[in-house]
Amino acid sequence: MKGTWILERTQNDRFPFRLQIIRGDKPWLVLRTQDRWPAAGRHIFCLREEEPPEPGESLEELERVDIIAFNERGKRVSVVLNRKRYKRCDFLFLKKSYKGRPDKSYEQIFWLTQRSIEQHRPSFKLVSRQEKTELTIRVHSNERYPWRFPGAVTERGVISAGDYALMDEDEMMAVVERKTLDNLLADFGTMPVLHQRLAELAAQNNHALVIEASYADFLNPKKVHHYTPGFCARAIAELYALHPALRIVFCANRKVANEWTRHFFTAVWGLRQTNEIAAKNYLQFNRRYEKMEEEEEIVRGPKPYPASVTSVEPLENYRLRITLSDGRKGIFDVSPYLDMGVFKELKDPDYFRRVYIDYGTVVWPHEQDIAPERIEDELQQE
Question: Which domains does the chain have, with CATH numbers?
Answer without folding.
Answer: 3-121 (no CATH), 136-274 (3.40.50.10130), 309-378 (3.30.2020.10)
